[in-house]
User: Fold this.
Amino acid sequence: MSLMEQLNRKALSLSVPLSVHLDVTYRCNERCQHCYLEHDGENELTTAEICGFLKQFAATGVFFLTISGGEPLLRRDCFEIIEFARELKFNVKLKTNALLIREQQARRLRETGVEQVQVSIYSHKPEVHDAITRLPGSLSRSLAGIRLMRAAGLKVTFANVLMKSNARDYPGVQALAAETGSHYTLDPTITPMLDGDSSVVAWRLPPEELRAVFRNQRLVGNVEDFCAPPPPIDDGIREGIPCSAGHTSCYISPWGDLYPCVQFPLPCGNLRQHSFSEIWAGSAQLGEVRSIRAKHLSTCSSCSHLGTCTRCPGLAFMEGNMRGPSSADCEKSFLRTGVVTAGMLAGHAVSPLAPPRSGLVQIQLPSSLGTLQSTSP
Ligand code: SF4
Ligand code: SF4
Assistant:
C-alpha cells in the first residue's frame, strides 16, 4: 500500500479532514462557456477570516489545501493567504488561469513553497481556447504564465477539460504540456452549475467522442485493462464509501459555506457561524453523507459496475438523490466497458443534448445508447 493510501486510511479511520478545497473568490477574468459558477464577489471572506479559518483547519488535521476560484489571484491578498497557509505547513496546490502571472509572481510562488500549480488549457489552438474562455489572447497569456512558473522551478499541471468544442485537441495540449515540462491531466466531466442550472451540460462530449477517449492508449494507458468488464462485486465493495467527500475532504466557498465537495452542493454549515471542527464533527448533513455505504445506494447497489464506476455522489445529488446513480458516470461506465448499467436499465442516463430542466440535470435515455441495450450481460 502506498504512503498516500495509508494516509487516507488513517484519516478515514480517525475522521480527519485531510484535504480542504478553498475557493477564495468566484470572480474571474475569464468567462468560460462551461463554467459552473456565478462570478459574484459580494461579501467574500476577508483576509483575517480566511487566515483564522486556516488556523482552524491546521488544528483539525488538514494537510492538503487547494486554493482556487474563480481566479484566486484576482484577490489582492492571495499571496498573503498562500504565504500564511505555507507558514501553517499546508501542502498547497493553486488552481489559476495564470493570466496574472509575471516573473515576480512566479518567483514568489516558488519561494513560498507551493507544491503545484494547475492551469486549465483547453486547446493548443488560440481560436479554440480563447473561444472557450471568451477572452481573446488568453491562451498565449496563460502559456506565458506557465513558462515563467516552470522557469521559476514550479510544478505545473495542464488540466484539459474536454468538451464538444475541443474534443479532438488533446494531442496538441499534451504536446504543449510536454514541451513546457508540465504534467497533463484530462477531465471529460462538465458539471451542472452549483445553483442547479444544467444548461452547461450541453457542452459535454458526445458519446462517440467519449468512447474514443476511453480507447486512446495515450490517455488511459492499457486500453484492454481500462475497458475491461467490471469484476464481480464482493463484500469489500458493498461496504465501501462512495468517495472521500465529507469523509476526509471538504469544500469551502468564498462566503465560508462548507460542502462535502466542490461538486457536491449540499450545505453543511457556515464558518462565519460555527467553527470548522464544530461543523466537521456535528453537521447532520455530513453525518448523513458519512452513513452511506455502497450497499445502501438505490439502483447502484445492484449494478455490476459498482466496484469500478466513477460514480460521483455530488452529481447524483444534483440530479435529485445522493444515493442514486449519476447519469454522467453511468454513461462513462457503459461507454468504457460496453456493459449496460443498472442506472440505464432504470432509465437514468443523461443526454448531453437534452434541454435543461429547472434545477435538475435532464434524465433521459439517449437513443444512441438505447440501441445498444441488447449488449446487456
Ligand atoms: S466523486 Fe464527486 S463528490 Fe466525490 S470527491 Fe469526486 S467530485 Fe467530489
Ligand atoms: S454505472 Fe450507473 S448505476 Fe452503475 S454504479 Fe455507476 S452510476 Fe450507479
Notes: The mean pLDDT is 90.
